[in-house]
Write a structure and sequence with these properties.
Blueprint lengths: L1 H21 L6 H5 L4 H17 L3 E5 L9 E2 L1 E9 L5 E10 L20 H14 L2 E7 L7 E8 L11 E7 L7 H15 L3 E2 L6 E6 L2 E8 L2 E6 L2 H12 L4 E6 L2 E2 L2 E2 L11 H14 L5 H8 L7 H15 L2
Parallel strand pairs: 2-6
Antiparallel strand pairs: 1-7, 3-4, 5-11, 5-12, 6-7, 8-9, 9-10, 10-11, 13-14
């Protein structure tokens, strides 16, 4: 009986693998138009172009109107199949990206740096939220880079499949994925919005913002387009989310559960994070920057489902070690 179930399970897995491999992501527009999912890809292309138009990302210009000393940046389409945890297709996504490698430094772009919050800042925010009983929610900014304002004039040739007239070019008014300066342009944009709302960014981490006025405390950590919110006022948090939605396309993900590879599970009664969350955070640190604790964490993780006070003490000892190194 067991052998029969094993064979059946193996067959189902093999079938799933074949299903996933038969629906591959096109590498070009021509490949997408010759695939069995032509209609789905064409609809995704139209959605992407319409979103660029709605956000005022570009204006159309004739090639003959572009100054001869100006470089025209190329572009392409990136095709992506979104799947759920079972491997089923949920949507077809197309993104128009600039070929930023063809940009000229000092002409097409200047500053390109864009900060993101530190992992230690996220851990600190989680600790404060649990200690103080703050509301903890997560937001996602859709097409974040498209909101950035450009200070440079950039001319771009639209990708194949967008234009019917080969003489039509684009002059970009907003940042676009692929441009060297897009990350910084987006960061500058959301920084201006948050500071106009009364937030101050921390000197130790420029992507952590705090609001502390009239007994209302709110902290915000920004990692590119992922936002983690911690606040002691539900009304203020609702107002903040409404203000952000008036400027960006925001998706509310509800109570924070997963961020930067960290699974978040809260015990509101004890104001603590479970043992599994602690070992998970330590494991992330071991893989990222602290390989010297790998063996200790591997031993602690063995008891994730049956830990005792002894294991808690050992885990906190690792934290003290990290604090002192």
């Amino acid at each position: 009986m067991a052998e029969h179930l094993l064979k059946e399970e193996h067959t189902q897995f093999a079938y799933s693998a074949v299903t996933l491999s038969t629906e591959t992501e096109p590498k070009s527009y021509k490949e997408a138009m010759h695939s069995p999912q032509t209609e789905e890809w064409q609809e995704a292309i139209n959605d992407e172009k319409n979103s660029l138009i709605a956000l005022g990302v570009f204006e159309t210009i004739r090639r003959s109107d572009i100054p001869k000393d100006q470089k025209i940046v190329g572009s392409k389409m990136v095709f992506k199949i979104k799947r759920n945890e079972k491997g089923d297709v949920t949507c077809y996504k197309v993104r128009i990206v600039a070929k930023g490698y063809s940009q000229v430094p000092g002409v097409d772009f200047f500053d390109t740096y864009a900060p993101v919050t530190r992992l230690t800042s996220v851990q600190m925010l989680l600790a404060i939220a649990n200690a103080c009983g703050l509301e903890l929610e997560q937001l996602d900014v859709k097409t974040a880079y498209l909101y950035g304002d450009l200070s440079e004039t950039i001319y771009m040739e639209p990708p194949e499949g967008i234009n019917t007239n080969s003489d039509d070019m684009w002059v970009l008014k907003k940042s676009l994925y692929g441009l060297k300066q897009s990350g910084k342009a987006w960061n500058d944009k959301i920084h201006d919005i948050l500071t106009s709302m009364g937030f101050n960014h921390c000197t130790g981490d420029p992507c952590v913002y705090t609001y502390n006025t009239d007994n209302i405390y709110c902290a915000l950590a920004l990692y590119v387009d992922d936002i983690l919110l911690a606040c002691n006022s539900e009304d203020f948090m609702d107002k903040l989310k409404a203000d952000l939605k008036s400027n960006f396309n925001i998706v509310e993900l509800g109570p924070a559960k997963f961020l930067l590879g960290i699974e978040i599970e809260r015990d509101h009664g004890r104001h603590t994070l479970p043992y599994q969350s602690l070992t998970g955070s330590l494991l992330y640190a071991a893989m990222a920057t602290c390989p010297d604790i790998t063996y200790a964490i591997a031993q602690l993780c063995k008891y994730n489902s049956s830990y005792t006070q002894t294991h808690w003490v050992a885990a906190k000892r690792v934290l003290r070690y990290l604090k002192g190194t």
